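Catalogue entry: protein
Contents: sequence, fold tokens
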Amino acid sequence: HASEAPDIPEWARQTVWYQIFPDRFCNGDPSLDPPDVLPWHSEEIHSSYVYTGGDIAGIRQKLDYLETLGVNGLYFCPMFTAATNHRYDTVDYFTIDPKLGTNEDFRQLVQEAHERGMKIMVDAVFNHLGDQSPQWQDVLKHGHQSRYADWFHLHPSKPGEPLRYETFGCVPEMPKLNTAHPECRQFLLDAARFWIEDMDCDAWRLDVANEVDATFWRDFRRVVKTAKPDSYILGEIWHNAMPWLRGDQFDSVMNYPLYDAIVDHLILGRLDREQFVAAINQSLIAYPRPVSEAAFNLLESHDTSRIMGLAGGDEARVRMAYALLFFCPGSPCIFQGGEFGLDGLKAHMIEWHREAMPWERPERQNRTLYRFLQQLIRLRLSSPELSEVPMCWLDGLPDEVFAVSKAGHILLCNPGSRTQVPRKRLPKGRLLDALNQSELPSGKPLKMKAGSVLWLKVQIT
């Protein structure tokens, strides 16, 4: 097997992603809504089987908004035909869910995004199918005699006994696929090629990637990279993923170790300063440098509570968390509504973290946070050097403050009380406030309010 780091496309290092959960983003074509569609701001979002009507037309209508925000990559949760609003229970890998639009609608969306310089990453689960898929329905009808029986992991059973089989997460609606079966494997690889080659997508995000066999992923990489050599392959793995990152499977992974470090210290207070620094450092050295520089960095997603909710509404801590996220190597991501400070918590059977976007509710849009993230996006994309791994923690500062530097940038965050940072503890030269695009007075201590962020660019004189 390959032993070197993956050959990762350069564009992946210079992307700021925006994650879209299609059903909850924007309803642009009400004619596609199911009969029992919920009102857009319904509070009944307690089930995976209820819909609010978001669709491809709505995403296309909001491309101007996304361009103004400044992101240059769109990551879509699954959009293939499925039986739930999250669509991780695939019915048909080759067809856009009719509630979202058509394949041609999606093709047009990809083209319009590309015209704006945006990359497209699609999401799929190749670990299991949905129980409404024609293959599984055939198994339910014919049992072990089904032509698709070997596509799944069926347990031996006697005639008349209930069918027993392997699933994802003990969820009977998600029977696990046997990706070692040649016909099943080829079917999935054809789907992988279709969305990259025929529909011109740029990247795959692979759900529960650690539960699929490595041989399949090696075949998957060959197929996808042959179809589009500069495509990007991202695995969802929550723990250390080095076995998948040796150049023969994924380009990089979702950076949950970095997520844990930032959230556990800045938001939840579970880590002290020393533990926090150690956790950040560990996340930076866990993988080969090219992998870390293309990691998918996040503070929230469709799988987590909103960071503003975890912070109890403390916007200052959320701003510090986002600033550090954008300072670290890797590609930062904003989950839809994060720019507005949506604060839903994830709980059993309640999906507040997946609430519909508050387009018509200005009171639910934190414009201060929006502008701060817009500044971070512009700074990140105008400073390619920020994707680099080397990062140094500065010492000798007030206890309240932590600071990191790299490539002529210094990020100072003050989670504590009001304080001053002596200029002699910082590099010599002109200090520019990179977020507000102003020069700081020379010689004077830097005053930092509690919860404040300073992003400096150093110009040596």
